[in-house]
Amino acid sequence: MKRGECKVNRLDELNSLRQEFLRYYMDKNFLSAAKTSDKIISHYRRTRNTKSKEYADDLFNAGVTQHELGNYKKAISLYAESARVVSERYGDCLIKACRITNLAIIHNKIGDDETALKLHMHTKEILENFKEIESDEYYMCLYNLGNTYFNLEMYEEAVEFLEKPFDIMRERNNIDAIDVGNSLGYAYEENSNYEMAIEVFEVVIGILKNHYSSDIWEILRNIYYLADVCSRAELFEKSSAYFEESLELMEKLIPNKHSLYTNCLNSLADTYFALGEYENALEKRLNALSALKESIGENHLHYSNCLKDISDIYRELKDYENAEKYLISQIDIKKKLLGSNCKAYIPDLLSLLEVYAESDQIDKAVDTLTDTIDSLNFEDKGSDEFLYELVKIYWSLGGIKLLNEVLVRVADLSTDDGIKKFFNNIIDGLS
Fold it and tell me: What is the pLDDT of residue 302?
């Protein structure tokens, strides 16, 4: 065989492998594609043809396949070698920028954001040197830099790099503005700039509705998150509107007993409560209670917590009869689940005492307070703070005589020397 014929045969073999690789890749059969790409790389090394642009391209394709398979260590090696070959032939060119971008993204995936930052910055420098600052690649590079700074908890820098690509993509009504906008919104949040975060998230939702009107789940996810941001910013009017919109979408997608639906009802109730709209808050909280009863049953802490929230609303409405009823039900469930000596329900007993105090049911308050002190397990660290609260309520209910009686008991039972001394000093002052 002549030398020229041998070279042709090698090219035929290589082209055949490439076609095989392409078929597997297009069919998303990445495992077979990876095996074929290994054969392609071996062919280059066997023929010592490892300085060509074609070799760099096939290395890159092999890296993409390993990337898809989640074999990040191997993908990094292939991307890096591809970038090195391109750099040796052409220097810092646009092809190299593409290679190191993928390399940087892999480093982001494995949590090596310091290395990723250097690589993304290198890409930015190359694109700027080639006057590509108006290109989609440049804006995506800024986006990658913004995300990397976010991962490094450098939120001001994240905002700096994310603002420009978001503005450009929003003007172009580009769907990539959705991902960029969400990243920018999160960065604003971390900087406690809720006003700008909300503004950006609202734009993102508008783009989502224009491009993905049928993807109700994605729209719901973004609206629900925006409602939560508004709550944290204490913009309760906006928050209630977005939670209501979320609830309407959920009713099309999930059963009422779904945990997401229940959480939305509770969040909406919290919002109305903060606005002082107690009737609306009560309606949503009762709906949540009904959904919880259907989904998890009554003997569950989530159900008991909802009872407490309902009691709080009735208390604001001055409906002390219902406030007492729901609180007692909640305490009974907690005792059943956690045991009568558990201090977890003591704050709820304190709430019940406050209900009695506000409704002038002094006898009930004193009986409940005495039972509470008798049931406490004073060996548990932390009981003293509850004792202190109990003493304060006892004072408000019974005056000096009752207070003196309970202080002697509390000082004797308290496990904390400082608290005990504090109580004894009060006793001495009352004597």
Answer: 93
